[in-house]
Records
---
Amino acid sequence: MIDLRRLGYNEQVVDIEGDYLLGRIVAVHRELYKVICNSGERDAVLKASIYHHGEAGEIFPTVGDFVLIDYNASGSSRIVKTLERKSYFSRKDPDVGRGEQVVAANFDYVFILMSLNHDFNLKRLERYLAASWQSGGIPVVVLTKADLTPNYEDLVKQVADTAIGVEVIVISSKTGFGLENLNKFIQPGKTIVCLGSSGVGKSSLVNALLGADCMKTSGIREEDSKGHHTTTHRQLLFLENGAMLIDTPGMRELGMWDITTGLGETFVDIEGLIQQCKFSDCTHHNEPGCAINEALINGDLLPTRWQSYLKLQKEAAYSANKALYFQRVKEKAKSNAKFIKQKKQARNKDQYNKGDF
Ligand SMILES: Nc1nc2c(ncn2[C@@H]2O[C@H](COP(=O)(O)OP(=O)(O)OP(=O)(O)O)[C@@H](O)[C@H]2O)c(=O)[nH]1
Ligand SMILES: [Zn+2]
């Protein structure tokens, strides 16, 4: 028996109609899903009448999602519901017009990897931080490749000044240096996702954490709808102590992020200063009593940090509109579906009354 709380599920499942089982998605490959549930790991597909022909707006599951399945002991189970997410990362769907695509869900911590050599870039870090806060996960900055950069103290300080209130941990996956400092996050039932640009050492860290564990490399062979054989790698990985890691290709393709609410947490210092401006509608240009100007003059606030804030805020305003736009599209689709359903029902009733059904 698998205790689903060990998979990170802490909520109560209400409203389960029928004999559905709770499970967690461990891999997605096109329309095929792997779900771990009380009966072990199962193949599953979406129940078409709910996801494809039901009311618009049913949320498609992704790696890390908790779902309800209509269990089938002898074949593919049917996924009937995607439960509410506590955190997620999404990217713009590569299929034009389809809005966003969620690539990972229900993680507790986001390890933001940045290497201490070539990849070191504080502007990018701010962006990753904002996206992480926005995702609902807790960011942890992991500075990699310590073995290649002997004098990193100054770099760590710069990161600490940028990532206010966030833990910063220096590691080397090659030598194992510092890995033990990640243990407080890598706890049973907790799920971690790694974020960072190509080459920073995400795979190396995942492999170092998995150690001798071969779960990652044991692919799952299966047949797709056209009869082709494919190998799906598990994308939710289990560490020996019961912690979980999400390692999915989608995370490498994150591009346009909605960072509206994540901004405030990334720039707590600036938001704090703004509160202290004399006028509540201060534009931080030449107003008297502007705490931002004061901090810029006395050196408490670096001009580069202020510029980053302004730049990201501009982008956030754009993506806020984008989010609103997609929300409206979704609502519209939903009300259309309802309308069509009502019309159909009315028509059927009509025909029934006329006796020509
Ligand atoms: N010296 C040293 N090299 C490392 C370390 N971690 C990773 N590398 C090397 O950096 C290169 C990239 O590492 P990966 O783990 O593949 O990086 P990644 O982030 O998974 O890259 P993508 O798959 O492109 O996203 C490889 O050549 C690794 O051997 C480290 O701690 N020290
Ligand atoms: Zn001001």
Note: Helices lie at 48-51, 122-135, 153-162, 202-210, 262-266, 268-276, 291-298, 303-354.
---
Amino acid sequence: MPESCPAPVLQARDLCHVWRTPEGQERRLFKGLSLELGAGEKVVLLGANGCGKSTLLKLLNGLLPISQGSLHWRGEAISPERLRDRELARRFRRDCVLLFQHPEAMLFNPSVAEEIAYGPRLLGLEDIPARVARWANELGLEPLLELPPFQLSGGEKQKVALASLLALDPGLLLLDEPTASLDPRASGWLVDTLLDSPATALISTHNLSLAAELGSRALVLGEGGQLLFDGPLRLALGDLGLLEQAGLAHRHRHRHGGLAHAHLHGHDWDAP
Ligand SMILES: Nc1ncnc2c1ncn2[C@@H]1O[C@H](COP(=O)(O)OP(=O)(O)OP(=O)(O)O)[C@@H](O)[C@H]1O
Ligand SMILES: [Mg+2]
């Protein structure tokens, strides 16, 4: 690679995820998926239920081992063996964060304040009280700081999980359905925060209306986990054939007076 061309922030080559069913049968997802995320890019990951979005984000975060293929982060190879190097693991974990689709899986501290402080403390960062105060303020969590996270509402838990990641000042955000439980105001805050941030982000969502706000590039996965599209988000959202192939277009009946007819839609049910 020429010196003037910096390494991508994340580069996956020929990824494949293999597992066995309880009956011993081999199952595969992705069958050789390759992608690159460049510095500062905001990329939206689209695909139907079960196509592999969450699995892909976990592979890219090093949380699931890659069965085949390779993963490079800022030019360094990442694998379970490589992550035994504590210094590399510390740098990678601070930079590359994953927001789980179900935030309960991330919350285990006795209070919201301790939850937000946990990552920065584990990674030996400075100014922990200031980090907690900043992100609690940004996400409106101040009244909840002393509460146990398990007592919070779904959207509040999502905000605590987000705050605990953002408190690390990460450079690479892997966000799995981050707006699923957020109200419109909090979703708007997240869109603005992401767009104002220099960080690279890969964001999965089903919300095609919000997708257009979250990024400018789309990765569309087919129902077998194959990469159907990698390009401008607007092109993907305007391509009803692609959306139908990905299982992202829906058909429902319209009722006009006494008449009813059905046709395909690419927009979300709740879109204006
Ligand atoms: N290790 C594994 N063992 C069993 N099944 C697995 C494994 N890894 C992936 N799968 C299956 O692969 C499919 C993809 O799951 P994944 O959660 O990634 O989908 P998704 O695109 O995030 O779906 P959703 O939109 O519902 O969140 C699922 O059917 C899941 O059960
Ligand atoms: Mg998922």
Note: The chain is about 30% helix and 30% strand.
